[in-house]
Structure formats: structure tokens, C-alpha cells
Write a structure and sequence with these properties.
220 residues, mainly alpha, 2 domains, two-stranded antiparallel ribbon
Length: 220
């Protein structure tokens, strides 16, 4: 692979690597500052709507400018535009599924702590496997495949299975307000005073009075 192709490939890795993280952050932030109960589905759709606007800016305005600058002939063969449209639909539906997967936890803790780690690992490990199988079948290249190629696919699938099996566990829940923060007090904290002093059994004393000047007790 030449350096130019490698550079563009690494750019794709970077953009797609942060895509799910940014998409999840957008859907979460959409719910902040709104009154009433949380509208999770509505917040997802707001984020997805902005993804569509970004696609319009990058995938429509950008190509039009480049085509105009290069003087590209304005013709679209049927097979060309139909397959390209299907590819765009597949990409948009995939983004929709990704967004729904990131926000579909059974609890708030699962959506916040587990799914942002688990979903991208499944998507970006499983998608290359599907791409490899479909491309190899489409081009009829199975006759050139050796065992190392098959082993790589199996290892990628095994990695996805391990991610699903050993996924992180969300925290048990928020710490109650009255729970002590730590076993050891902070340096500026006041030290507790001494506990009650143990006393022996009471001794019966005859009635009388005490003279504090001579430290004597006079019986009445």
C-alpha cells in the first residue's frame, strides 16, 4: 500500500473510530435542559437529524464543488446511481441502528457505561468480517484463499465474542447521601473526643455534708 492510500485509510479509521462516541454524546446532550420526563427516542432522532445535515454538507455540497471545479461531465448511468443510492441507504440505516443500539440499555447505567464500549467493538469488528466475506464471494476469490486468511476471520469473530462475554459491569448504583465517604478522616477533620469513662459500682454513703476547705465529710 502506498503512503497516500495509507494516509486516507488511517483518516477513515480515526473518523469512524470516534463516530459512535460522538454520536452517543450528541444524543445524551440533546436531553439536557428540557423540562418533563426524558424523551430518549426523540433525543436519538435529533442526533440522527444532525447526522443527516452533516451528510448533506459533506456528501452533497462537497462533491458538487469538486465536480464543478474539475469540469466533470454531468451524467449518471442507471447502474451507477442505483448502486450508489443503495450504498447510501445502507450507510444511513447502519448509522440509525448504531444510534439506537448505543441508547437502548435496560437501565441508565447500562446505556452510560456498558453500551458505549460494547456496541462499537461489535460493529467495527463485525463489519470488516461481513465486508471480507461479501467481497471475496462477489469477486470469486475463494480459490485464492489460504488457511491464514480463514484464521484471521475466525480470530476476529472470537474477539467479538470475548467482548460480549466479558463486557464491563455498570456500577451497582449511586452512593446514598448519608453513607460515609471514607474510612479514614481527612487531615482537617475534627478528631472524635474520648468515649465515656467506665465507672465502678456506686458506694452507699451516710447522709451528711462535705467541708471543701478541710476536704472532710461530716456525718449528720
Amino acid at each position: 500500500m502506498n503512503s497516500t492510500a495509507l494516509l486516507f485509510a488511517l483518516g477513515t479509521v480515526l473518523c469512524w473510530g470516534v463516530y459512535s462516541v460522538l454520536l452517543h454524546m450528541g444524543s445524551v446532550e440533546m436531553g439536557k435542559g428540557s423540562a418533563g420526563p426524558p424523551d430518549l427516542t426523540g433525543n436519538r432522532m435529533k442526533a440522527f437529524l444532525l447526522v443527516g445535515i452533516a451528510y448533506f454538507i459533506v456528501a452533497i455540497v462537497g462533491p458538487l464543488i469538486i465536480m464543478k471545479a474539475k469540469g466533470t461531465v454531468w451524467n449518471f448511468p442507471t447502474a451507477g446511481w442505483s448502486w450508489s443510492l443503495i450504498a447510501g441507504i445502507a450507510g444511513a440505516v447502519g448509522a440509525f441502528f448504531l444510534l439506537m443500539a448505543l441508547s437502548s440499555g435496560k437501565s441508565a447505567a447500562e446505556s452510560k457505561y456498558v453500551l458505549p464500549l460494547l456496541v462499537p467493538a461489535i460493529v467495527f469488528a463485525g463489519a470488516p468480517i461481513v465486508n471480507t466475506l461479501v467481497s471475496t464471494t462477489k469477486e470469486g476469490n475463494w480459490g485464492y484463499v489460504n488457511w491464514k486468511f480463514i484464521a484471521g476471520i475466525i480470530l476476529a469473530a472470537a474477539g467479538t465474542a470475548m467482548v460480549m462475554k466479558f463486557k464491563p459491569s455498570p456500577p451497582a448504583g449511586p452512593v446514598p447521601a448519608g453513607t460515609p465517604a471514607a474510612a479514614h478522616p481527612s487531615p482537617g477533620a475534627a478528631k472524635p473526643g474520648p468515649g465515656p469513662v467506665a465507672r465502678g459500682p456506686a458506694i452507699a454513703v451516710a447522709p451528711g455534708y462535705a467541708d471543701v476547705t478541710t476536704r472532710t465529710y461530716h456525718v449528720s
